[in-house]
Amino acid sequence: MPALIHQTSPTKTTIEQLCDTLQEYLPLNMTDTVRSAYQYASVFHTGQVRKSGEQYITHPIEVAMMLARMHMDYQSVVAALLHDVIEDTAAVKEDISKHFGNKIADLVDGVSKLDQLESYSQATKQSHYFHKMVLAMSKDLRVVIIKLTDRLHNMQTIESLTAEKKRRIAIETRDIYAQMALRLGMHNMHDQLNELCFHTLYPWRAKMLHAATAQRIGNHYKLMEHIRGQLIAGLEQAGHKGNVIGREKHLYSIYQKMRHRKIPFYEIMDVLGFRIIVDDIDICYR
C-alpha cells in the first residue's frame, strides 16, 4: 500500500556515508573534493540552525546524498553542499571559484539566483513564462536539478514550519517545481513532490485514502509478486527478455483521478501498476 509519507528524514547522512555512495561510481580524487566542500560548508554554516533545531549543514548534505543516489557528477554534488553559502553566509562566488573552480562556483551562483526568484509574486511564478525564465537563467541544467532536489528535501522536512508557511510552500511546490520536474522528464521527482504536497495540503484526505487503499490491497506484496511472476513467465514463453517492476500507485495520483472523473474510491480499479522494460522498441509495442 502507498505508505504515509513522514516528512522528516529517518536517519541523518554523514559525510562518510555520502563519500561511500560516491565511490561506487566516482574516482577517489573526486570524493576528496566532496570532503573539502563539506568542510568548507560546515565552517560557513557554523552556528546556523534550521527551524527544526538541527544544524543547518544537515540540509545540504542530504541534498548532496539525493544527487549521489541519482549518480550525478561530482560537481553537482559539491555544488549541492555549497548551494546556500553565497545567500546565507559571508562566502562569495570568487572564493568558491578559488577553492573549487569556476564550474562549481557558477553552479552555486546559479542556484542562489534561482532562490532570489522566491520574491516574485505567486501569480508571476505560476505563469507559463516563469518556467521559461527559470530555464533560460539556468544556462547549466544541473542548476535546476540541484534546486529541485533542494526543494524535495525542504518538503520532506517541512513539519517544523507554521501551518501558513507549510501551505504556501506546498502550493508553490505543486504548481511550480513539480511542473518544472515534469517538463524536464524527471517523473520520479515530479511524483515525489506532488505526493508530499498532497500530504501537506490535505493530511486528513491522505490519511483516509491511505486507509482505504490498505484495505483494498490487503496483502499487496504477495499479490504484486504473483502478478509480476506471471508477467515474467509470459515474456519468457514468448521468447523475450525484460524487467518487470511492480508498484503501488501514489495516493496523489489516485486522488487526482477521483477528482477529475468525479468518482468514489471504490470505482478506482488500478491501485497497482506494473512497468515492463524491454531492450527492443518493436518488442515494446508488441
Percent range for β-strand residues = under 5%
Can you give the mean pLDDT? 84
Unreliable stretches (pLDDT < 50, length at least 5) are 1-10
Order of helices and strands: HHHHHHHHHHHHHHEHEH
Say what oligomer this is.
single chain
Distance between the termini: 30 Å
- Backbone shape: globular
Helix content: 55-70%
How many helices does DSSP assign? 16
Radius of gyration, in Å, reads 21 Å
Largest sheet: 2 strands, antiparallel
Q: Record the strand order, biggest sheet.
A: 1-2
Provide a short characterization of the protein structure.
This protein is mainly alpha-helical and 286 residues long.
Salient structural properties:
286 residues, mainly alpha, 16 helices, disordered N terminus
Describe this structure in words.
The structure is a single chain. It is globular, with a radius of gyration of 21 Å. By secondary structure, it is mostly helical. The chain is built from 16 helices and 2 strands. Residues 1-10 have low confidence and may be disordered. It has a two-stranded antiparallel sheet with strand order 1-2.
